[in-house]
Design a protein that fits this description.
- This protein has 186 residues and is an alpha+beta fold.
- Among the domains are: 63 residues, 2-Layer Sandwich (Alpha-Beta Plaits), CATH 3.30.70.100; 64 residues, Homeodomain-like (Arc Repressor Mutant, subunit A).
- The protein is built from nine helices and four strands, in the order E-H-E-E-H-E-H-H-H-H-H-H-H.
- The chain has a four-stranded antiparallel sheet with strand order 2-3-1-4, with helices on both faces.
- A hairpin with a 2-residue loop joins strand 2 and strand 3.
- Helix 3 crosses helix 5, helix 3 packs parallel to helix 6 and helix 6 crosses helix 8.
Length: 186
């Protein structure tokens, strides 16, 4: 039996869900971003209790097919941008379509209907968040970050970064340096 969970976007969320399953004595085959596969069908009471426990932690058990599909799309995007080190060999739309075995037009229309934004806008926002994270780590150059996140050029990354944040990537880095210096002065 597969269960779909909204707002499950990090490794910490996966650990929390595993913990809740174990507390309830529910055996599971896998826990992935946005989805849990349990060995047996759950009773209504187990589902209700599991759902209530998840809500206490800010997660939500899904039962609507469109919302489930949107959460699956989000999980693929988050995995692709935040947790994968390999550059996809196909464009984002083909990658998502292949992963979920759905026509991209259907995925895109459903996502836009439920989220009020396009899949591409969602991808851009996550890429910019990942760029910020990588800039703060200060381990990769902007060129390496652009390659890692599948940008066509550093200029493209920089333009998109400025459009979303209002800052250039280099200025964003200097803000981090200034913040660190201020903390040292305390």
């Amino acid at each position: 039996m597969k269960l779909y969970i909204k707002y499950m976007v990090s490794l910490r969320c996966k650990m929390l869900v595993k913990s809740e399953l174990e507390k309830l004595g529910i055996t599971f085959a896998s826990v992935d971003l946005g989805m849990v596969e349990v060995h047996d069908n759950l009773t209504e009471e187990q589902l209700k209790e599991f759902g209530e426990n998840l809500k206490k932690s800010g997660l939500e058990l899904l039962d609507d097919k469109k919302n489930i599909l949107v959460e699956m799309i989000k999980a693929v995007i988050i995995e692709m941008i935040h947790y994968s080190d390999e550059v996809p060999q196909v464009n984002d739309s083909d990658y998502i379509s292949e992963k979920l075995n759905y026509d991209y037009t259907y995925l895109s229309n459903t996502f836009s209907e439920v989220k009020g934004m396009t899949i591409q806008q969602y991808i851009i926002h996550h890429k910019i968040e990942r760029v910020k994270e990588l800039l703060l780590y200060d381990e990769l150059s902007l060129t390496e970050i652009a390659y890692k996140l599948h940008y066509s050029s550093v200029a493209h990354l920089s333009n998109q970064f400025k459009k979303i944040t209002g800052l250039t990537p280099s200025y964003f880095k200097t803000l981090k340096d200034k913040r660190i210096r201020h903390l040292e002065d305390l």
